[in-house]
Design a protein that fits this description.
This protein is mostly helical and 197 residues long. It is 72% helix and 0% strand. It is found in: Membrane.
Length: 197
Amino acid sequence: MSETTTRPAPGAHIADPAALGLGAFALTTFVLSVVNAGIVPDKVEPVVFGLAFAYGGVAQLAAGLWEFAKGNTFGATAFCSYGAFWLSFWWLTGHTDLSGAGADVNKGLGVYLLAWGIFTLYMTVAAIRVSGAVLLVFVLLTITYFLLAFGEFGTSSGLTKAGGYVGLLTAIAAWYASFATVVNVTFKRTVMPTLPR
Protein backbone atom coordinates (compact mmCIF):
# COMPACT_ATOMS: atom_id res chain seq x y z
CA MET A 1 0.00 0.00 0.00
CA SER A 2 1.57 3.27 -1.14
CA GLU A 3 1.24 6.53 0.71
CA THR A 4 -0.14 9.54 -1.09
CA THR A 5 1.73 12.76 -0.38
CA THR A 6 -0.10 16.03 -0.75
CA ARG A 7 2.21 18.81 -1.83
CA PRO A 8 1.38 22.47 -1.42
CA ALA A 9 0.86 24.57 -4.52
CA PRO A 10 3.99 26.31 -5.83
CA GLY A 11 4.59 29.51 -3.91
CA ALA A 12 1.83 28.79 -1.40
CA HIS A 13 4.08 30.00 1.42
CA ILE A 14 4.62 33.39 -0.28
CA ALA A 15 2.41 36.34 0.69
CA ASP A 16 0.12 37.66 -2.05
CA PRO A 17 2.21 40.20 -4.02
CA ALA A 18 -0.88 41.66 -5.71
CA ALA A 19 -1.53 44.07 -2.84
CA LEU A 20 1.91 45.64 -3.30
CA GLY A 21 1.72 45.68 -7.08
CA LEU A 22 -1.74 47.25 -7.18
CA GLY A 23 -0.86 49.76 -4.46
CA ALA A 24 2.32 50.84 -6.27
CA PHE A 25 0.45 51.17 -9.53
CA ALA A 26 -2.42 53.09 -7.93
CA LEU A 27 -0.37 55.68 -6.08
CA THR A 28 1.93 56.46 -9.02
CA THR A 29 -1.00 56.62 -11.44
CA PHE A 30 -2.89 58.91 -9.08
CA VAL A 31 -0.09 61.47 -8.85
CA LEU A 32 0.55 61.52 -12.62
CA SER A 33 -3.17 61.70 -13.37
CA VAL A 34 -3.57 64.75 -11.11
CA VAL A 35 -1.02 66.44 -13.41
CA ASN A 36 -2.62 65.12 -16.63
CA ALA A 37 -6.06 66.28 -15.51
CA GLY A 38 -4.73 69.79 -14.99
CA ILE A 39 -5.57 69.81 -11.28
CA VAL A 40 -2.00 70.96 -10.64
CA PRO A 41 0.25 72.72 -13.21
CA ASP A 42 2.21 70.40 -15.49
CA LYS A 43 5.46 72.10 -14.45
CA VAL A 44 5.26 70.06 -11.22
CA GLU A 45 5.31 66.78 -13.19
CA PRO A 46 8.89 66.03 -11.99
CA VAL A 47 7.40 65.10 -8.58
CA VAL A 48 6.23 61.93 -10.33
CA PHE A 49 9.73 60.86 -11.38
CA GLY A 50 10.85 59.48 -8.02
CA LEU A 51 7.59 57.59 -7.62
CA ALA A 52 7.82 56.28 -11.17
CA PHE A 53 11.25 54.82 -10.45
CA ALA A 54 10.91 53.55 -6.88
CA TYR A 55 7.27 52.62 -6.33
CA GLY A 56 5.66 52.34 -9.74
CA GLY A 57 8.80 50.78 -11.22
CA VAL A 58 10.92 48.84 -8.75
CA ALA A 59 8.17 47.82 -6.30
CA GLN A 60 5.85 46.68 -9.09
CA LEU A 61 8.64 44.78 -10.78
CA ALA A 62 9.35 43.01 -7.48
CA ALA A 63 5.67 42.15 -7.12
CA GLY A 64 5.70 40.70 -10.63
CA LEU A 65 8.71 38.53 -9.89
CA TRP A 66 6.99 37.14 -6.79
CA GLU A 67 3.91 36.42 -8.92
CA PHE A 68 6.19 34.28 -11.12
CA ALA A 69 7.23 32.38 -7.98
CA LYS A 70 3.56 31.83 -7.13
CA GLY A 71 2.85 30.53 -10.63
CA ASN A 72 0.54 33.43 -11.53
CA THR A 73 1.13 34.20 -15.21
CA PHE A 74 -1.36 37.08 -15.32
CA GLY A 75 0.00 38.83 -12.22
CA ALA A 76 3.62 38.31 -13.27
CA THR A 77 3.00 39.68 -16.77
CA ALA A 78 0.96 42.64 -15.53
CA PHE A 79 3.18 43.78 -12.67
CA CYS A 80 6.51 43.26 -14.48
CA SER A 81 5.14 45.04 -17.55
CA TYR A 82 3.71 48.04 -15.73
CA GLY A 83 6.81 48.19 -13.54
CA ALA A 84 8.77 48.44 -16.79
CA PHE A 85 6.31 51.09 -18.03
CA TRP A 86 7.01 53.28 -15.01
CA LEU A 87 10.76 52.78 -15.31
CA SER A 88 10.59 53.70 -19.00
CA PHE A 89 8.41 56.72 -18.16
CA TRP A 90 10.99 57.82 -15.56
CA TRP A 91 13.78 57.52 -18.12
CA LEU A 92 11.80 59.04 -21.01
CA THR A 93 10.54 62.08 -19.13
CA GLY A 94 13.42 62.69 -16.78
CA HIS A 95 16.51 61.64 -18.70
CA THR A 96 15.79 61.81 -22.43
CA ASP A 97 16.31 64.93 -24.54
CA LEU A 98 13.44 64.99 -27.02
CA SER A 99 14.06 68.55 -28.20
CA GLY A 100 15.54 67.30 -31.49
CA ALA A 101 12.21 65.73 -32.43
CA GLY A 102 10.56 69.14 -32.69
CA ALA A 103 6.83 68.97 -33.44
CA ASP A 104 7.09 65.21 -34.02
CA VAL A 105 7.64 64.55 -30.32
CA ASN A 106 3.87 64.29 -29.86
CA LYS A 107 3.70 61.56 -32.51
CA GLY A 108 6.40 59.60 -30.73
CA LEU A 109 4.67 59.93 -27.37
CA GLY A 110 1.37 59.01 -29.02
CA VAL A 111 2.83 55.78 -30.41
CA TYR A 112 4.36 54.99 -26.99
CA LEU A 113 0.99 55.43 -25.24
CA LEU A 114 -0.95 53.67 -28.00
CA ALA A 115 1.30 50.61 -27.73
CA TRP A 116 0.67 50.46 -23.98
CA GLY A 117 -3.05 50.81 -24.68
CA ILE A 118 -2.96 47.81 -27.02
CA PHE A 119 -1.10 45.73 -24.43
CA THR A 120 -3.58 46.77 -21.73
CA LEU A 121 -6.52 45.91 -24.01
CA TYR A 122 -5.44 42.30 -24.43
CA MET A 123 -4.65 42.04 -20.73
CA THR A 124 -8.22 43.24 -20.11
CA VAL A 125 -9.50 40.12 -21.88
CA ALA A 126 -7.52 37.93 -19.47
CA ALA A 127 -8.62 40.09 -16.50
CA ILE A 128 -12.18 38.83 -17.06
CA ARG A 129 -11.04 35.60 -15.38
CA VAL A 130 -9.30 37.30 -12.42
CA SER A 131 -11.87 39.37 -10.52
CA GLY A 132 -14.38 42.15 -11.05
CA ALA A 133 -12.12 44.59 -9.22
CA VAL A 134 -9.09 43.83 -11.40
CA LEU A 135 -11.24 43.86 -14.55
CA LEU A 136 -12.44 47.38 -13.69
CA VAL A 137 -8.83 48.53 -13.28
CA PHE A 138 -7.92 47.21 -16.72
CA VAL A 139 -10.99 48.59 -18.48
CA LEU A 140 -10.34 52.06 -17.05
CA LEU A 141 -6.61 51.84 -17.76
CA THR A 142 -7.24 50.90 -21.39
CA ILE A 143 -9.46 53.96 -21.80
CA THR A 144 -6.83 56.12 -20.06
CA TYR A 145 -4.04 55.04 -22.40
CA PHE A 146 -6.12 55.58 -25.55
CA LEU A 147 -7.29 59.02 -24.41
CA LEU A 148 -3.71 60.06 -23.61
CA ALA A 149 -2.42 58.60 -26.90
CA PHE A 150 -4.97 60.45 -29.03
CA GLY A 151 -4.39 63.53 -26.93
CA GLU A 152 -0.74 63.40 -28.02
CA PHE A 153 -1.53 62.62 -31.67
CA GLY A 154 -3.97 65.52 -31.86
CA THR A 155 -2.06 67.78 -29.44
CA SER A 156 -5.40 68.01 -27.64
CA SER A 157 -5.25 69.24 -24.06
CA GLY A 158 -8.91 68.27 -23.71
CA LEU A 159 -8.24 64.60 -24.45
CA THR A 160 -5.18 64.64 -22.20
CA LYS A 161 -7.25 66.10 -19.35
CA ALA A 162 -9.97 63.49 -19.96
CA GLY A 163 -7.26 60.82 -19.80
CA GLY A 164 -6.11 62.34 -16.53
CA TYR A 165 -9.57 62.12 -15.00
CA VAL A 166 -10.09 58.52 -16.17
CA GLY A 167 -6.59 57.83 -14.80
CA LEU A 168 -7.77 59.07 -11.41
CA LEU A 169 -10.66 56.58 -11.56
CA THR A 170 -8.17 53.88 -12.55
CA ALA A 171 -6.01 54.71 -9.52
CA ILE A 172 -9.01 54.61 -7.18
CA ALA A 173 -10.08 51.22 -8.59
CA ALA A 174 -6.52 49.86 -8.17
CA TRP A 175 -6.32 51.21 -4.62
CA TYR A 176 -9.59 49.46 -3.83
CA ALA A 177 -8.27 46.16 -5.24
CA SER A 178 -5.06 46.54 -3.20
CA PHE A 179 -7.00 47.49 -0.06
CA ALA A 180 -9.35 44.53 -0.48
CA THR A 181 -6.43 42.14 -0.86
CA VAL A 182 -4.68 43.41 2.27
CA VAL A 183 -7.84 43.48 4.38
CA ASN A 184 -9.19 40.11 3.24
CA VAL A 185 -5.86 38.35 3.79
CA THR A 186 -5.32 40.04 7.16
CA PHE A 187 -8.82 39.26 8.45
CA LYS A 188 -8.74 35.79 6.82
CA ARG A 189 -12.20 36.31 5.36
CA THR A 190 -13.89 38.38 2.69
CA VAL A 191 -14.40 41.83 4.18
CA MET A 192 -14.09 43.82 0.94
CA PRO A 193 -15.64 42.05 -2.08
CA THR A 194 -13.64 41.81 -5.31
CA LEU A 195 -16.18 39.74 -7.25
CA PRO A 196 -13.89 36.76 -7.87
CA ARG A 197 -14.44 34.82 -11.11
